[in-house]
Write a structure and sequence with these properties.
The chain is α/β, with parallel strands linked by helices. The chain has helices spanning about 15-30, 45-55, 65-75, 100-105, 180-185, 195-205, 230-250, 255-275, 280-300, 315-325, 330, and strands at about 5-10, 35-40, 60, 85, 90-95, 110-120, 125, 135, 145, 150, 150-155, 165, 175, 210-220. The protein contains 11 helices and 14 strands. Strands 1, 2, 3, 4, 5, 6, 7, 12, 13 and 14 form a 10-stranded mixed beta sheet that branches. Strand 2, helix 2 (about 45-55) and strand 3 (about 60) form a beta-alpha-beta unit. The longest helix has 23 residues, at about 280-300.
């Protein structure tokens, strides 16, 4: 047991080079925390690198590659600090990044989840795709962020330097109270990876917990270090997990109409992939639907006791972005 309130936990799988590059900033600037690396049974030199180069970092060795969702669930059973900071292995943190987080958690008991400002490691004047300045979803479950709507990414000109409530926080750098994580049974292991953090935030929201974005904490994210956008597996996980998430969290009266519409919209996306010659991505969508049909009854059984009706920021970000050509968050809302 430690007297520090926060645990920085980095999930790793065969990321020895990323650890060598990014762990130094975490160790240097996380004096308020205990730093852990949860290793998903890596077959490279990850564990040896940590032991030799970062002796203050605690290692949790999972018995297999459990993916992002269950990898964290298994590892966090061994972490007893009051607040969890779940951090990707390709994140560079900045000096003082934990102080604003601790301040919010210690003074605002109604805040259960926090996200810092996430900028692009490769182009540090711009927001990073995965999270940017805090996330929202539309009525049909499409996620978007302040600073990033679909593939339009904004330059950080201070336009999102206000602390606000958000709907979801990015799994790239995700802060949550331990008691809430455990009350919700952590991430849904059936997701394996991708959108499990949105599902967790939605489940927290349904129980009345709030998420917050703070620009006072800044990190830089490489993004795509595990699966990049061109990988059909990422397409499969995103499309399948969106449907799983909607099934678990949509309000009762909206569940089946919205699921049906999403299936139709997925079909349109598949046709677009065919027209672009990306047949493997179209096949990934078909596989996602087959897996969804296989899991739908299981997901229905996971529905919580209540589903809040006011979960979405706008009815259709797809219509706003592609039809009305609205690409910048602060001009839309």
């Amino acid at each position: 047991m430690t007297d520090k309130k926060i645990a920085v936990v980095i999930l790793n799988w065969n990321g020895a080079k990323l650890l060598e590059q990014f762990l130094p900033s975490v160790v240097a600037y996380s004096e308020e925390a205990t730093v852990y690396v949860a290793d998903n049974a890596s077959t490279d030199a990850s564990v040896a690198v940590i032991k030799s180069q970062f002796p203050t970092v605690k290692i949790i060795q999972n018995e297999g590659n459990y993916g992002f969702a269950n990898g964290y669930n298994v590892a966090l059973e061994q972490v007893e600090e009051e607040y969890y900071a779940l951090v990707n292995s390709d994140i560079e943190v900045t000096e003082g990044w934990l102080k604003p987080i601790l301040s919010i958690f210690d003074t605002a008991q109604n805040i259960g989840i926090i996200q810092p400002k996430i900028l692009d490691y490769k182009n540090k004047e711009y927001f990073e795709y995965a999270g940017a300045a805090g996330g929202f979803i539309d009525k049909y479950g499409y996620p978007f962020c302040r600073g990033r709507i679909f593939d339009t990414i904004e330059k950080d000109n201070g336009q999102y330097n206000d602390e606000i409530e958000i709907f979801w926080a990015s799994g790239a750098c995700f802060f949550i109270r331990k008691e809430i994580y455990r009350k919700l049974n952590g991430f849904d292991a059936d997701f394996f990876a991708h959108q499990e953090e949105i599902d967790l935030c939605w489940r927290a929201f349904n129980l009345g917990y709030k998420a917050k974005y703070t620009p006072k904490s800044v990190v830089y994210h490489v993004g795509g270090a595990t699966l990049n956008e061109s990988n059909p597996k990422k397409t499969f996980l995103n499309f399948r997990n969106s449907l799983l998430m909607l099934t678990k969290n949509l309000p009762e009266g909206q569940l089946f109409p919205i699921i049906f519409l999403r299936l139709c919209l997925d079909g349109i996306a598949g046709i677009q992939f065919i027209l672009k010659g990306k047949l493997t991505h179209c096949w990934a969508i078909l596989k996602a639907h087959f897996y969804f049909y296989h899991l739908i009854n299981k997901m229905l059984k996971k529905r919580g006791p209540s589903q809040a009706a006011n979960y979405y920021k706008t009815k259709s970000i797809v219509f706003t972005y592609f039809v009305k050509s609205g690409t910048v968050f602060d001009k839309l809302f």
